[in-house]
Amino acid sequence: MSIAIIGGTGPEGSGLASRFARAGEKVVIGSRDAQRATEKAAKLCQLGSEGAHIPAPAIAGEENTSACQQAEIVILTVPFEAHAETLKRLKPVLRPGQIFVDATVPLAASVGGRATRTLGVWQGSAAEQTAELVPEGVAVVAAFHNTSAEVLQSDGPVDCDVIVCSDDKEAAKKVRALARKIPGVRALDGGKLENARIVEQITALLIGFNIRHKGHSGLRITGLPQQAYEL
Amino acid sequence: MSIAIIGGTGPEGSGLASRFARAGEKVVIGSRDAQRATEKAAKLCQLGSEGAHIPAPAIAGEENTSACQQAEIVILTVPFEAHAETLKRLKPVLRPGQIFVDATVPLAASVGGRATRTLGVWQGSAAEQTAELVPEGVAVVAAFHNTSAEVLQSDGPVDCDVIVCSDDKEAAKKVRALARKIPGVRALDGGKLENARIVEQITALLIGFNIRHKGHSGLRITGLPQQAYEL
């Protein structure tokens, strides 16, 4: 698989890029600024080769739209204030068959409010806004909202379940398989894309725990048969 | 402590009643129908004495308002369609200093919709609606939304964290201490009452998991220092 991470120079995007590269995936991080992307990619490869021995060319860096063009899976990890604008810029290069993963959380911090509160999005969630803004035939999947950027950027296992929501069952299955490449992660079928409303908001709650207790919180779903984590 | 569970004849209320009675608390379950409450209480005591050996008088049953009058902690576990009406009936008997715990989830099932979706509540959450409807001086705490009724009614440990939200820190602390009396439960400070918006909605997500995977799901928050579960 080839994976483009839009907003890949940020903490969540960088963390995901490192994790997928370590798992042997071909990763391109995107930025509005091509040079910034190239530099960040080089830095991630260097960090990776020191720590977990990633071969240097495993992560490339490009301007967002060119990163997007090559990828089978595009992952969006921009702050919510850049969400709609980024999608409008990507629209001309997105093509049917691509999987578009939205990890965006509409935190009130985007408009100067608190990171422990969310904004109401007219469509219901950032992911549903995405579904409205991508070309027809692009499969929108919501995932990776609740994984701590700090933990993703570390070397240790990620003590968090990834809840995957989509109206495209095949695309969701591929994203669950991808999520499971991150050590520690279990991936779960979160149902329809509309359920991203809840999964996105959980992040605001987790940020509150982090502030109150100086942690890097995540969540695990309990009480399900083992099969639920394997589908 | 004396605990009244309003809507205590339902599955969540019954489950909480059994758990608190087993922990040695004095529990009264309330119902609109006094006789129904008495019968259910007797049944719970009988079940309890067979399984976990609760002495017979540990759970009493009364009409909702009289159950409420005696209690230091009142726990509301009615379906959302009965939420506002129940609160209006309880208002004359609630008194300053009481702790009012709301476990209600505004599921769309209340108006004939799905249990995997929630209704928008004008105040933001069922718990915030409660804060508007109780007399001044009553401390409103949101908790016990995510604990499976089926698991609470069983004999085994409850594999779930209870996230407690309130604007009254002392009351929240007491409710966390109460929650920890249920074997397996860890209780966490979920911040202000407004965060009940998120905690309530998580239940709809968990119901979705239960339907898809035939489980009784709960959740655990990871990545926090041990102290977070002890405060």
Structure description:
- The structure is a homodimer of 231-residue chains.
- Helix content of chain A is 38%, strand content 19%.
- Chain A has 231 residues and is α/β, with parallel strands linked by helices.
- An eight-stranded mixed beta sheet of chain A has the order 3-2-1-4-5-6-7-8.
- In chain A, helix 1 (11-22) links the parallel strand 1 (2-6) and strand 2 (26-31).
- In chain A, helix 1 packs across helix 2 and helix 4 (83-90) runs parallel beside helix 5.
- The relative contact order of chain A is 0.14.
- Strand 9 of chain A pairs antiparallel with strand 9 (218-222) of chain B.
Mean pLDDT of chain A: 95
The proportion of residues in beta strands of chain A is 15-25%
Computed over alpha carbons, the radius of gyration of chain A is 16 Å
Multimerization state: homodimer
Main sheet makeup of chain A: 8 strands, mixed
SSE string of chain A, helices as H and strands as E? EHEHEHEHEHEHEHEHE
- The tally of beta strands of chain A, per DSSP, is 9
- Most extensive interface between two protein chains, with residue counts: A-B, 39 and 39 residues
- Helix/strand class of chain A: alpha/beta
Low-pLDDT parts of chain A are none
End-to-end separation of chain A: 19 Å
| Individual helix count of chain A | 8
Task: Tell me the helix content of chain A.
Answer: 25-40%
Shape of chain A: globular
Within the largest sheet of chain A, what's the order of strands? 3-2-1-4-5-6-7-8
